[in-house]
Amino acid sequence: MLLALLGAVKQEVDGLRKRLGLREVAAPPGRHLFAGQCGQREVLLLQTGMGRQRAGAAAEYLLGRYPVGILISLGFAGALRGDLGVGDLVLCQRLLTTNPSDGAACHSDADLLAQAARAATEAQCRWVTGDSLTADGLAADPREKLALGETSGAASVDMETYWLARAAAARRIPFLAVRAISDTLPQKLPPFERLVDADGVWRSAKATSYLLAHPAELAALPTMYRNARRAQMSLTRALCALTTNLASGSTSL
Q1: DSSP labels for 149-190?
Q2: How many C-beta atoms lie closer than 10 Å to residue 189's C-beta?
Q3: Is 36 exposed, middle or buried (0-12, 13-18, 19+ CB in 10 A)?
Q4: Which residue has the higher pLDDT, 2 or 216?
């Protein structure tokens, strides 16, 4: 059975793709799929794009086409707790959404959570276990993040995890979510939709126009880049260790 990993944007999956030596294979337009062998398992890594619609469609494509035995969601997240710093990992226990009508909470597999904790420790990453909240849009303002954390009790917020977890749960596939903090609770973010597209690629014309109109936002870009790099490094180290352990055949999953 395949081990499948999904991340929304290039910055989230690129380090892992390189470290595992995965090659790009054919996929529908708008998606990037990478494949390779790790130990005794075939590994797939899919770049889904940001948000509910793209993540859900990508999961349905992958799970409908390949015999996936384990599904892992990885990526960046905003901190909803003041004790979380950039690069810290959240090993997500419950997967929640901001809209209760979307359905019941999903859960990461307990055995996968335990293995992720061992892998993160092995990779010398700082990690916590906590709940993950999936929002419809970017939580950019510190006051919004604080309110989301107080209301939900979640540790981190992103835009995809719940929908991937729900797709796995519908097929009874063991699921795990690992998120690396890329913006802390007090950090305010610019409107990313004006700067990057759904794959995280820089929108040259729109971004330039926005930054010319809001020059103060330029000062935040170097910090954002450094934070993303630090989050990527944590994800890559931990997920490489976890993938290697899962592929060794030492687990019954």
Answers
A1: HHHH--SEEESSHHHHHHHHHHTT--EEEEEEEEE-TT----
A2: 18
A3: middle
A4: 2
CB 106, CB 73: distance < 8 Å: no
The pTM of the full predicted model, rounded to 2 decimals, is 0.90
- Measured from the Cβ of residue 185, the count of other Cβ atoms closer than 10 Å reads 17
Give the distance from CA 200 to its chain's centroid: 13
3 state SS of 253: coil
Query: Is the pLDDT reported for residue 225 higher than 90?
Result: no
Residues 29-57: tens digit of each pLDDT: 878 999 999 988 899 999 998 999 999 99
Domains of the chain: 76-247 (3.40.50.1580)
With beta carbons less than 8 A apart as the criterion, state whether 58 and 6 touch: yes
